[in-house]
Amino acid sequence: ALSTLPRDMISLADYTPEQIAALVESAADFKDKTKNHGQAFHPDEPLKGKTIGLLFSKRSTRTRVASETSIAYLGGHAMFLGKDDIQLGVNESLRDSAIVISSMVDGLFARVGAHSEITGLAKYSSAPIVNALCDENHPTQILADLLTIWEVFGKRKPEAKTVFDVVRGLNVAWVGDANNIVYEMLSAFPKCGINMNVCTPSKYPIPESVQQMAKSDADKAQSNVSYFTDPVQAVQNADIIVTDTWVSMGQETEKAQRLQDFAGYQVTQQLVDAGKPNKDWIFMHCLPRKPEEVSDEIFYSDRSVVFQEAENRKWTILAAFSALFSKRA
Ligand code: CP
Ligand code: NVA
Question: Which domains does the chain have, with CATH numbers?
Fold first, then answer.
């Protein structure tokens, strides 16, 4: 399935379940080779002589560190292009910048604001584009989440052979904002057979178009997607409770209002006691985390797999770059 991937990765909505699973399996393979068999770099240097542009208009820790180290592993060169370094957005249009930069690099990993910026880059770039986060999607994050879920629940199901054998039928409860992370989960989880309870305040609904896509995927894969406004109801029977910041990058001026709007949404032991998730439930969060959306007690508990999830950004980005950026002659 890896040889059939689309040129770009804007959202996992554009990928088949088999393609998603192949990327997750490839990531697990890189992780195993590196951590258990001492492979510090790719023996074939698939990105040798190639440069990947990292076009970041917003801050990043995980995504940037994972991408620069992955490109080194693949034998290539990473060129960080921060928003204060290049002409884009100040002296030059997105269209012109995309044409020019892509004429000199072999791939672009781009973190932007509006979704239209990532699709605009993809339209005008002659090199493959991977989305490093936009306001609607974060595909490399959700690949890392799938790897983490596969690792954690795979250990409990030793008879399972494929990614699908492990993840199918698991219940994910999202308690938080209607943002890029949950939209991307809704783009990938239902079609992989994962059930989702999505809980957001009524002021922050999931867009109709995202709901329709998730429903159509869920119908085909025989999974379920349900919507809630009460966190206690949403976490019932959950295997995975997941949240994210209530104030995404670019929403800083809305912070005071948002803290009010999300009152009662903090993931706490009290919520868990009231909501009754499944016995072996785990907690996930893409990070960076702020204390208001999850208590320290949960965040630093044995239930929490957030740092494993963060490390898995590296292995999944490595798999995505290996598959998408090595292709070009
Ligand atoms: N999860 C995530 O994308 O983190 P960074 O913003 O640190 O890259
Ligand atoms: N929803 C967050 C995710 C950060 C990785 C944001 O967009 O800022």
Answer: 2-137+313-325 (3.40.50.1370), 141-310 (3.40.50.1370)
